[in-house]
Write a structure and sequence with these properties.
With 547 residues, the protein is an alpha/beta fold. Among the domains are: 286 residues, TIM Barrel (Alpha-Beta Barrel); 85 residues, no CATH class. Helix content is 32%, strand content 19%. The protein has 18 helices and 22 strands. Strands 1, 2, 3, 4, 5, 6, 19, 20, 21 and 22 form a 10-stranded mixed sheet that branches. α5 packs across α6, α7 runs parallel beside α9 and α9 packs parallel to α10. The longest helix is centred in the middle third of the chain and has 17 residues. The protein is globular, with a radius of gyration of 23 Å. The termini are far apart.
Length: 547
Amino acid sequence: MTTRREWVRDGLLLAGAAMATGAATSTALAAPWVRRRQDADLVVRGGLLLDGTGGAARELDVAVQGGRIAAVGARLAARGREEIDARGMVVSPGFIDIHSHGDGNLREDPRAASAIRQGITTIVVGADGSSRFTGDADDRFATWAERTDALHPAVNVASMVGLGSVRGRVIGEADRRATPAEIARMTAMVERAVSEGACGASSGLEYTPGAFADTAELAAVCRPLAARRLSYATHMRNEDDQLLESIDESIAVARGAGCGLQVSHLKQQGTRNWSKLQPSLTRIAQARQAGMDAWFDVYPYVAYATGLTNLFPVWARDGGTDAFLARLDSAGTAARIRTEALGKVELIGGWDNVQLSRVANAADRDAEGKRLGAWAASRREEPYEAAVGLLRRNRLDVGMLGFAMSEENLDALLAHPFGMVCSDGGAFAIDGPTRRGSPHPRGAGAFARVLGRYVRERKALPLADAVHKMTARPAARVHLVDRGRIAVGLAADLVVFDPATVADTASFANPFQYPVGIRDVVVNGGVAVRGGEQAGGDGRGRVLRAS
């Protein structure tokens, strides 16, 4: 009788047999100390190795010394001071989350538990136009990196520079064009950030103040990216009715700057826009055919996460919180704001497709995790007025999830050759100070969900392709040249997982659950997760700089 372990092995080897490996693991390579049979720090034995390139799985051992991969080969003779028996398991490079907000809680809890337990060993932050540095002389990437390293995070951290943060630093919250002098200052800030190691620049054009930047401004401030072949990553101006126009604008920005383009969390929001899947992909393909280095990323859920203010028009947010709250009451603007907000709610299918995820005001905590329509009804309030009341009492600090996308579109996006996987989530733990609110389950489940639901169950894409989209592809995208592959000399970030059981368990009703089937995780040569449990002590993660 075939054992489960043999079934997993044979299935992976047969599935990958027709694929060209192009891999550094195609032959057994060993550093001199291995040939002399000296001990290694760590040996991972007998796993079905997917090296990150998309090539076929092979039964190989991996030896680690000094935080780097020292040997890859069949039945290595070297003994490890620590060993992992990976028979029947897949061994892959550590997953790289190319669009993460996991840095938000690192100061409170550097364990980054919901990320590392997914197999994520590197988070790329500074997304959606918001970064924790601006590149100004007194607010530099180098200073942020030093402070982040001092936290000893569980995961590696790379960061883009956020163009919304840059604009806020120079112009503030005003809805106006930047002057030539302001554009020159912002460009210099981006130049300083990327010269110190930032791995690109991001925009968030549905958020203020980034939404107030026009195409010409964005292209100008992104020009420092071109010489380093870094990319402009964009949360586009619109992801529903003006989706195609927004893709066109994104391409125009990258073309004007002479840099690459990364469309962040590509989606088609609202039933009436689901048919825009192929036109979206066609535009990106045409940009590539014209010579642009254009890609996209996607997270594996039909709901997005944002602030409740995202249901309200950008123009109403000009000038910041107090100005927006005043317009909600003004006779000249209140009716228009209401009409436009109700149109957005109708687009995504009604108030019960809005789930409240986070509030700042303790008196409103009962709203967290509730659908806004049902919550308003329980209070005998009209939903729009209930939403406005929440924004007033919380001074706009209210989070929401919007259920608006198609799972069939997700299948296609995840499988598409120009796509890669992201979480767009935060990092938190099921215990301690970061367990709060009702966050999107993607923060604890995105990568395991791809492997379980979309690879194993829905068969949207092969396992080797999924691993490639989580490892080598994002590493190359943000110029982390020693990450994302299993090859001699590269950093030893590794994941050992069970392809037959890996799955997300976090849900919209209960997001505070870790995935299953991610057994062991190695970061910079140190075991961070062992047997599904996070190892204690300081994390081995560090800030990574674009090469």
